[in-house]
Amino acid sequence: MVEQGKFGNKEAIAVLVIACMAKEFFTDPNIIVRKVGTAGWYMVLISAAVAAGGFTVVYFLLKRFPGKNIMEIYDAVFGRYIGFVFSFLLAVVLLFSAAMNLREYVEIIKIYVFLKTPPVYLIGSLIVTAVILSFIGLENIARYSKLAGYVMLAGFIILLLLASSFFRFYRIYPLLGYGLKNTLVQGFLRSSIYGEITLVAIFAKSLHRIEDVRKVGYTSLIIAAALLFIMQLGLTLIFTYPFGKELTAPLYAVASLIHYGAFFQRVESLFLFIWNISTLIAIPLLFYMVLLIYSHLFKIDDLRPIIIPFPVILLTLSLIPSNIVELVQFYIRYLREFGWVVFYVLPAIALAMAALSKKKGA
Amino acid sequence: MKRIFSMLLLFVMLFMLTGCYDARDVNDAAYILLIGIDRGISDKFRVTFKFPAFEAGGAQGGSGGESPGGGLSYKTLTIDAPSFNAALELANTSIPRTLNFMHAQFIVISEDIAKAGLVGEFLAPIVRNSSIRYSTRLLIAKESAAEFVELLEPFGGSDITRMCENLIKQAQETGLFADLTLYDLHDCMTSTYHQPIAVLAAVNKGENFIEKGPKWDTKYNIPGDYYAGDVPRKKGSKVELLGLAVFNGDRMVGKLTGHESRLLAMAKGNFKKGTYTIPDPKRPELNVDLEVREARRPDVKVWFEGEKPFVKLKLYLEGDIHSIQSGIHYETPEMLPIIERAFERFIKRELDKTIEKTQQLNCDVFHFGHTAVKKFATIQEWEAYDWNSRYKDAKIYTEVDFKIRRTGTMIYSSKIKYAEEDK
């Protein structure tokens, strides 16, 4: 039997917020500016509202089947075969997300920091970390997230405070960006930026009570939305929308702008710390979730035998995009724009089906 | 088994922690401090790099890092190449160290290139280069950028890095130029809100310093009303920063003097302080010196009548009296407003002239677009209106409010007493 261990709400909140935020440190702010212009700072709040609706569905589903995780609920509602397909789809999206986030991290870090290091070496280093963390288990990942979370939060706030001298409020105008309708549509489509919050449904059993799922989910969503709002607003105030569209990693560019005389500059290392640690938590977490789903699908009691072959799949998937443009404009774009189907719509179908067929947990 | 696996893992980690691929040894790098860009003769661009000298440079450290003069010694290298990256590669064929731009202070572009609209073309590879920071300062050299780079030497015992930092700090002390970086220029070049400016730089050869001739009479010259390189001075540093270059997109279309740059800073709310010398209102052949600073941020209002933009700009300044050459007792509640109104008239007149100059160039360097954009709901509407093209049609009203706060160490001016025969 796969034992995930038990951990508290703070640990769960930390791991989910970091998983949500990690991918936003790369090209996502650029894509948001390209899609909604100056309206990105409140578009993330629209996305959060949609994600809150999506998470509410997930919570009601978990509440209806106490003591079960999402994969077991799918099986209970749809039966073994359709339940298998639903869980499998979730595993595919998570594995693909992990692979694309991994590749995005490597591409960006190659542009800004490790210019000469071969991508396979960087990918390999991260995969080794994911493997080690998978061996030590979810409980340890969550506990480490809490530990790192406070430092990362402090680093993130310091970074934005230092960059605040570049804030110019005219840059948020025109307030409606490319139009309110466009912002609403994009906000809805990109609600999957908070999709990782629903991972709580996979490790629900690691929390103590069903009320904890609600607390963890909403609190993580509120914290992630607040941080994303602050980050996106800060970026909008620093880069005009034509400039913001050009930058590969806007947050890194912000860090490199900070310059307070000859003795206080080059604070990218602070940002690199946040960047690396958050990625080193987010990717192994997604990877571990895939292992959990897979072990459920094929009724594997021990995760260890599949920890070694799965990195090969992760590595292979991460090498699919032929370049950064394809990665950002095709793979990541569609993952972000349609991820909500798997994160929110599949649970909604399951909830509707459970209600219609009057199925309930014990 | 666990122990073997742990040992194996530690062994693998040892190799991962070396950073071998991207390891940068200080002794293998030449840290470029200044980059100069001119139009080339053998190729499209002439690129000049200035870096600490290897044989005595700081890069080697230790006691060998200082030249006999007390400061670090520097070398320059000039290369004709089709682009910045090509120049970089070619430079590496003659210097046995990898050029590194982590510590680049100034990118100096010649006026010739700026006027030809080649700034964007040249900056394109620079802004993509992750080792060149957005905080690097950008200058427009009056004549040759190579000469400017060559002659920019430490002054007063400092090294080039400190010299550059301190030189730029004078922007805040005087307001006669601005502290502008690569980030500012790149941001402005693509901006729909305003047009770019860059700092004017030049080698001052002392040509305007006239050694002999008729002595100055009672004429009045506005302080700082020069372009870089034109200040009548002798000796001191060989280079100077003064005034601003005005761009339309990436093409330099005009220049502002140091005095005009100060007015621009006042209008944008960037003015920290500066000393003004104006004619004494009661004895115009003599001067009054004022140290002026911003009292509060300027008030800018923009409205539209049909398609035509209207702008109202009000400056709030305050200052202290530094000298009254005439000795007239202005330090009374009735007399102080006389100087205040005279200064207000002076600034308004000069500001109107400067605004008119930028309108003739159709370059909103005053950032009125930052207020105008608030009247537009969407980017589509804003871009369709095209503020940068409409700036020349704007009707701009200005107003200046100036208050004297202090009178220096003297609160009363006594008359100078002469013997009867000297009156």
UniProtKB/TrEMBL annotation, chain A:
Localization (cell): Membrane
InterPro entries xref list: Spore_GerAB (IPR004761)
GO BP of this protein: spore germination
Keywords, ordered alphabetically: Germination, Membrane, Transmembrane, Transmembrane helix, Transport
Keyword Transport in annotation: yes
Residue stretches spanning the membrane: 39-61, 81-100, 120-138, 147-167, 216-241, 270-294, 306-332, 338-356
Mode of membrane association: Multi-pass membrane protein
Top-level taxon in the UniProt lineage: Bacteria
A Pfam family recorded for this sequence: Spore_permease
CC per GO annotation: membrane
Matching PANTHER family: SPORE GERMINATION PROTEIN A2
UniProt similarity note: Belongs to the amino acid-polyamine-organocation (APC) superfamily. Spore germination protein (SGP) (TC 2.A.3.9) family.
Protein name, as recorded: Spore germination protein (Amino acid permease)
Organism: Caldicoprobacter faecalis
Organism taxonomic ancestry: Bacteria, Bacillati, Bacillota, Clostridia, Caldicoprobacterales
TrEMBL record, chain B:
Position of the signal peptide: 1-23
Protein topology in the membrane: Lipid-anchor
Family, per entry: Belongs to the GerABKC lipoprotein family.
Main location per the UniProt record: membrane
Ranges for domain Spore germination protein N-terminal: 22-198
GO biological process, one term: spore germination
Protein name: Spore germination protein KC
Subcellular location: Membrane
A GO cellular component annotation in the UniProt record: membrane
UniProt lineage: Bacteria, Bacillati, Bacillota, Clostridia, Caldicoprobacterales
